[in-house]
């Protein structure tokens, strides 16, 4: 299956798009070689760091790889569409139809342009997205409470310290009462990313900065990262909760570990433990990196769940496939058994596939309303 997924784009791009172009043979060979090199991006990433999730190349090279990888993807789809369209015309007219050089150039240009736009969208510092959520049982003392969510920053060579610093600056001026981070802080070990994550220590809000791990934290020295993030000022909610008070009113912020944790020898998500001992009748906001268990959270009386992980599906159309792997949840707001689930598109993106088209990144500011 992997051979088919990897080989089909190469066959389409090299044999069905590149080779028919009226170019010198030597130039075609060079271009075909570059296509193969770009298609092997994740292999080179693994060689660079030992992990496919952390390409340790100069940032410009990571950007070029992502553009080339995206261009191959789009060109494959466009060339297949062009082939099918040509075949249909030939069948209807019952005449041989040849794809012109101009048509091949056009689809190549469109593919390159879409990839460039997708990478540019992925790299930007996200805007603040405002969402109003009415919480049943929320005390009037918390009416207007502002909660800001960051998620899936994937701090790496692609999203380095200066990007993280810009995200921190934009987040700190949101007038948030609390900041939460719902996992996937980074891609790389503490040694690789120490300088890049350092700006996160400047995040501040009156009620603190709370966080949970995502699946990527387990790929890189999980225990070291939990300690280091705590030292940076994050209150890590590992199957635990915190209670926020306003006079006699209370709001519970609970957090669970990631579903992938047991596969890495760590404690998996335990919602019962996270909620144990919480104040009676206090609404619960749950932080869970992956949205797949939202129905179970709703059944346990959680009022609101904040998740990430899906990156919003990254590309319109692809989001439908991503939703299928996440219990149907991929982007935005859902009503799940009376609970509000919000799945953020993410603040950053995994550097192995950094393209966004129609699914923009975000820093999400929630204003809670008593209801």
Automatic annotation (TrEMBL):
GO biological process entries: lipid A biosynthetic process
An example molecular function term from Gene Ontology annotations: UDP-2,3-diacylglucosamine hydrolase activity
Pfam families, A to Z: Metallophos (PF00149)
GO CC annotation terms, alphabetical: membrane
This protein's record includes keyword Hydrolase: yes
Domain Calcineurin-like phosphoesterase: 146-312
Keyword Zinc applies: no
Regions that span the bilayer: 30-48, 60-81, 101-123
Keywords noted in UniProt: Hydrolase, Membrane, Metal-binding, Transmembrane, Transmembrane helix
Name this polypeptide is given: Metallophosphoesterase
